[in-house]
């Protein structure tokens, strides 16, 4: 197949610690772009034509391992098991690290008010609450938030088998590019947790069509 050019249709800008929801049509291409610096993005996906069908962290982890990159597919929960997005580019330099950490995590779930209370003594929203807030207008409930792909989160298992994270390997200018394999509702949180590094940053979501 001949190479096709990507034509930018829309750029959505998400502020630190907020949630954002938007649709990506089948065949469109989404870039999740760091424009200022590193930032973890908790990335949930629903089939926008059947909101019961949503991303499965565990099925995708079984298929590809605990970290995703170019060529990997985000798969939906059973009984559907359909491709939702295919990762078509990943600019992050996956740096060698004695702890074995790698970017784009499927080990962790999503942070939430209880984690934030225990870790930071903070009464504030985590990614669970951010995503619940932006899916409400689609008729979805807090229980519909699911374990995400943690884009740019850099993680490993320690010697005890427990998930750990370090500051992201990703830098300003890096992006993850995903092609929609169905009509998708994306619900993402610009994670307020410490895994993004010491300073939170805005994230651009760029939607492209192939010419
Ligand atoms: Zn979070």
Q: Which helices and strands, and how do they pair?
A:
Elements: E1 6-14, E2 19-24, E3 29-34, E4 41-47, E5 50-54, H1 57-64, E6 73-75, E7 83-90, E8 102-105, H2 113-120, H3 127-135, E9 149-157, E10 163-166, E11 175-180, E12 184-190, E13 203-210
Bound molecules: zinc ion.
Total domains: 1
The unique ligands bound to this protein are:
zinc ion
Oligomer type: single chain
- β-strand amount: 35-45%
The main β sheet shows up as: 7 strands, antiparallel
Portion of residues within helices = 10-25%
Coarse structural class: mainly beta
Contiguous uncertain segments of 5+ residues: none
The mean pLDDT is 95
Question: How many DSSP H or I helices?
Answer: 3
Number of strands: 13
Radius of gyration: 16 Å
Order of helices and strands: EEEEEHEEEHHEEEEE
Distance between the termini: 13 Å
Shape verdict: globular
């Amino acid at each position: 197949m001949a190479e096709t050019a990507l034509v930018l249709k829309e750029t959505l800008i998400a502020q630190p610690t907020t949630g954002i929801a938007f649709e990506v049509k089948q065949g469109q291409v989404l870039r999740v772009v760091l424009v200022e610096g590193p930032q973890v993005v908790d990335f949930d996906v629903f089939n926008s034509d059947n909101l019961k069908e949503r991303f499965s962290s565990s099925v995708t982890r079984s298929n590809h391992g605990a970290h995703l990159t170019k060529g990997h597919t985000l798969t939906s929960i059973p009984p559907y098991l359909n491709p939702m997005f295919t990762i078509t580019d990943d600019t992050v330099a996956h740096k060698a690290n004695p702890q074995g950490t790698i970017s784009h995590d499927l080990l962790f779930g999503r942070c939430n008010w209880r984690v934030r209370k225990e870790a930071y003594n903070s009464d504030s929203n985590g990614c669970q609450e951010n995503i619940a807030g932006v899916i409400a207008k689609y008729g979805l409930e807090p229980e519909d938030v699911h374990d995400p792909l943690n884009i740019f989160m850099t993680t490993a298992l320690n010697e005890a088998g427990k998930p750990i994270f370090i500051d992201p390997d990703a830098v300003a200018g890096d992006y993850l590019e995903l092609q929609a394999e169905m009509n998708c509702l994306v619900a993402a949180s610009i994670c307020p947790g410490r895994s993004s590094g010491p300073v939170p940053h805005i994230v651009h979501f760029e939607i492209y069509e192939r010419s």
